[in-house]
Q: What sequence folds into this?
């Protein structure tokens, strides 16, 4: 049985279970951090000889993979939406990289990581492993897990879906996707810098309902499958614009180099 670990053990023996892109990327990054890493193991590995076992397996397979691990090592999973419950009976933690992992070549350095644990020692180990890979950690409680993961999906997947619709509308006008890229990049950068309300620009933000109506008619004619999304986003954008007006009236609106800009027409 492995000895109890604390952060005084700077080089734990880590075993990764899961041979997919996440497992391979974990091994590569931990090896680059100076740990002596074997290649990822398949499901059914018992964790023998390890201080820490990281389960880089699909969410639905976490409980079964954890059940195969013998007593002793800390056991962590890499899921964003899953609580610690599937690791019941182990010294459990989770470490979720907030990034897109495409393969072993993915560099974790600088990326955020959500961590949780059944106790202080387990949380400390999750943070320690993340910091070995130069990641920035923050804590998410089990009760907040699904809400946090929904935010991740909205910030990444939904943005791509929206840009896909924008691409189709641009194509109908003979405009290439890359011509929209500066707007998309600026919107994200302004959101990061100032928050959503202060970053908002365009006809809804300035109250130009006539332009929005003409846009809606164009979407209905050229991309009818996108009209429901357009209407839903227009309503949400109006609410966001209203919140900005309320903040401005209260003297709380943030100032920045792009305040009052006209990105988005």
A:
């Amino acid at each position: 049985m492995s000895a109890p670990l604390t952060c005084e053990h700077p080089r734990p023996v880590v075993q990764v279970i899961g041979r997919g892109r996440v497992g391979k990327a974990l091994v590569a990054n931990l090896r680059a951090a100076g740990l002596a890493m074997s290649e990822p193991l398949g499901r059914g590995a018992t964790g023998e000889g390890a201080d820490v076992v990281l389960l880089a397996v699909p969410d639905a397979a976490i409980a079964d993979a954890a059940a195969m691990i013998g007593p002793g090592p800390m056991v962590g999973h890499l899921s964003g939406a899953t609580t610690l419950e599937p690791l019941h009976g182990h010294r459990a933690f989770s470490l979720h990289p907030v990034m897109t992992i495409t393969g072993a070549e993915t560099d974790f350095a600088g990326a955020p990581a959500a961590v949780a644990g059944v106790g202080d020692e387990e949380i400390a180990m999750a943070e320690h492993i993340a910091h070995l890979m130069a990641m920035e950690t923050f804590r998410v409680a089990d009760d907040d897990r699904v809400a946090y993961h929904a935010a991740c999906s909205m910030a990444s997947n939904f943005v791509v879906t929206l840009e896909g619709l924008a691409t189709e509308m641009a194509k109908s006008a003979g405009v290439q996707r890359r011509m929209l890229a500066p707007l998309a990049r600026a919107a994200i950068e302004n959101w990061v810098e100032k928050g959503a309300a202060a970053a908002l620009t365009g006809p809804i933000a300035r109250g130009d309902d006539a332009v929005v109506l003409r846009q809606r008619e164009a979407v209905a004619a050229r991309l009818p499958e996108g009209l429901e999304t357009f209407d839903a986003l227009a309503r949400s954008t109006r609410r966001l614009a209203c919140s900005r007006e309320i903040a401005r009236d209260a003297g709380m609106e943030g100032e920045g180099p792009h305040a009052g800009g006209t990105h988005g027409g």
